[in-house]
Amino acid sequence: IPEQFLADEDIAWNLIKHDYRAFQYLAEELRKNLDLIIEVIQFDVDMLMCVPDEVLNDRAKVLQLVAERAGVLAYAADEFKNDKQIVLESVKIAGSQLKYASEELRNDKEVVLQAVKTYGRALEFASDELKNDKYLVLEAIKKDGYKWPQLVELDDSGNIWAKYGCINSGGRRILMDSDGRILAFDPTLEELTTIIEKNLGK
């Protein structure tokens, strides 16, 4: 395509609708066009690598972009990763975006709460202090919608994980009896059968 056509907005729209990757070849002024940017990042947020810094350093534009697509915060200027409004908008779309927030905002309870309400496991990206916040832990569990009991030990207070040989573990299958006594971690089918037969007296 002749270079002059890569600066034509009508042609640009036709090109990216045919193949969004054509965006990277457009004239710089068109790669600043917010509508075109929003269109292509719906296909691949990494196309932000082709967007001029001028856009990603513009607070109003970044605020609009983070509300459109997860992953934008990773490409934003560092100052916006410490901008509470921008980070809140980002974690509303995808709680996992908390990992790109500044250290200060990962220690902000309002921001972390919004993140875990969107994605329970976002709590892993919070500050150490907030990872041990009981309310946030319960909100994270609620969001993930687990229908079974959750074993949560704050600050290793009861040394439970060390006792059962699984320090720093998470997301494990734990078999407990009706009294809450732990019978096994990640039991195999054979182990599960043996435990059931033993506890049912068969």
The residue fraction in helices comes out at: 40-55%
Radius of gyration, taken over Cα atoms and rounded to an integer in Å: 24 Å
Report low-confidence residues grouped into runs of 5 or more.
none
Derived from helix and strand composition plus strand pairing, the structural class reads mainly alpha
SS summary, helix count: 10
Instruction: Give the termini distance in whole angstroms.
Output: 78 Å
Main sheet attributes: strand count, strand direction, barrel closure: 2 strands, antiparallel
Q: What portion of the residues fall into strands of 2 or more residues?
A: under 5%
**On the 0-100 scale, what is the average pLDDT?**
84
Order of helices and strands: HHHHHHHHHEEH
Strand order of the largest sheet: 1-2
Judging from the principal axes of the Cα atoms, what is the shape?
A: elongated
Q: Give a count of the beta strands, DSSP E runs of length 2 or more.
A: 2
Give a written overview of the molecule.
It is a single chain. The protein starts with 8 loop residues before the first helix and ends with a helix. The chain is elongated and about 80 Å long. It is mainly alpha-helical. Strand 1 (174-176) and strand 2 (182-185) form a beta hairpin. The protein has a two-stranded antiparallel sheet with strand order 1-2. It has 10 helices and 2 strands; from the N terminus they run αααααααααββα. The protein has helices at residues 9-18, 34-41, 53-56, 59-66, 84-93, 109-118, 128-131, 134-144, 160-163, 189-200; strands spanning 174-176, 182-185.
